[in-house]
Specification:
Blueprint (H helix, E strand, L loop, with lengths): L1 E2 L4 H14 L3 E2 L8 H4 L6 E2 L6 H15 L2 E7 L2 H16 L3 E8 L7 H4 L10 E4 L5 H11 L7 E4 L18 E4 L10 H17 L19 H18 L8 H9 L2 E2 L10 E3 L6 E3 L1 E7 L2 E8 L14
Helix pairs in contact: 3-4, 8-9
Length: 318
């Protein structure tokens, strides 16, 4: 069994390796490029977290009504960023919008100032998608703040407080994010409250060595994207292994069948929402949330049920 991969090229590389090894593979955190499910899908590989237009189409339609039709995007120039740019462009066109500004930042570029200064601040764009990832995201936001860009247009970004060491910087206040989980437990959701308590007990006790990058014991959060994606992936794998009576590589075919038929309602195993696996391309769907950052809180503006998310494409597993 293989699990992991963070950046999209890593996931696609492991995905292509899985059939040669004859083992099932599940991507975990990250790995958000549509390529995984639209071009290179195979019967051994699965992705649980929704990607590309599965969330973009629904959220863009709402955001255009709220903020206007003229948008821009600054994105990392590799598989994930390119996929995000293309999906945003397509989603905008479907609702009469335009992606008027497209700023590609070379992969590994540490000086983002020359690219941030290309963002127009004359009112010609009403919203800016900031699809940078990893340490590039907070660094880009910081440079944007230096040039006074936040406040001059609506920022639409990704990832939550986990990306900023557990504390949102003032520059992202009012920004819009979309994810399969909120940074903090959802009010009134007993399953999410229990999940959050269990995560904090683990983080602050058994695995304290990883607290630094996540903000230390006072700010650590189970996360909107990477943290919850990893958790839900491992939970799905656990349920499928139990259903298949999995004992090892000899049971791979049974495990694949169990993963293909994964369909679980929101509950203790998946506290943030329903989970559905599409048998045709092994691309999952999960309940997603469109949120607005309000200080250190996230206000949910729209809930996108897993069953209402579109399928990605025509890739058929073989």
């Amino acid at each position: 069994m293989l699990v992991g991969g963070i950046f999209s090229p890593e996931c696609v590389g492991v995905q292509n390796l899985a059939p040669k090894l004859g083992v099932a593979y599940m991507s975990s955190s990250g790995c958000a490029s549509e390529t995984f499910s639209t071009q290179s899908c195979n019967k051994y590989s699965f992705r649980l977290s929704p990607a590309g237009k599965q969330v973009t189409e629904a959220t863009t339609a709402v955001e255009v009504q709220m903020f206007g039709k003229q948008w821009g995007i600054i994105y990392p120039d590799y598989a994930l960023g390119q996929s995000t740019m293309q999906n945003t462009d397509a989603a905008l066109k479907k609702v009469g919008g335009t992606l008027a500004v497209k700023i590609a930042v070379p992969l590994g570029e540490t000086n983002v100032t020359p690219y941030v200064t290309k963002i127009p601040t004359d009112g010609s764009i009403k919203a800016l998608v900031v699809s940078m990832t990893g340490t590039d995201l907070p660094r880009t936001i910081q440079v944007m703040q230096q040039f006074g860009i936040p406040g001059k247009m609506q920022l639409i970004t990704a990832l939550g407080k986990e990306q900023y060491g557990g504390v949102y910087p003032a520059a992202v206040n009012g920004s819009i994010i979309a994810a399969t989980h909120t940074s903090d437990p959802q009010p009134g959701n007993q399953f999410d409250q229990a999940y959050d308590q269990a995560f904090l007990a683990m983080a602050k006790g058994k695995d304290a060595q990883f607290l630094g990058p996540l903000g230390g014991p006072d700010h650590v959060t189970p996360g909107t994207t990477n943290g919850y994606t990893a958790y839900s992936t491992m939970t799905a794998l656990k349920l499928a292994m139990r259903a298949a009576n999995f004992t090892g590589k000899a049971d791979t075919a049974k495990l694949i069948t169990a993963l293909e038929n994964l369909n679980v309602k929101q509950g203790a195993d998946f506290p943030a929402g329903d989970v559905i696996m599409n048998k045709a391309d092994h691309q999952g769907r999960q309940t997603a949330y469109l949120m607005k950052i309000n200080g250190q809180q996230e206000n949910v503006l729209q809930t996108i049920p897993a069953a209402q998310e579109p399928l990605i494409g025509n890739c058929q597993v073989k």
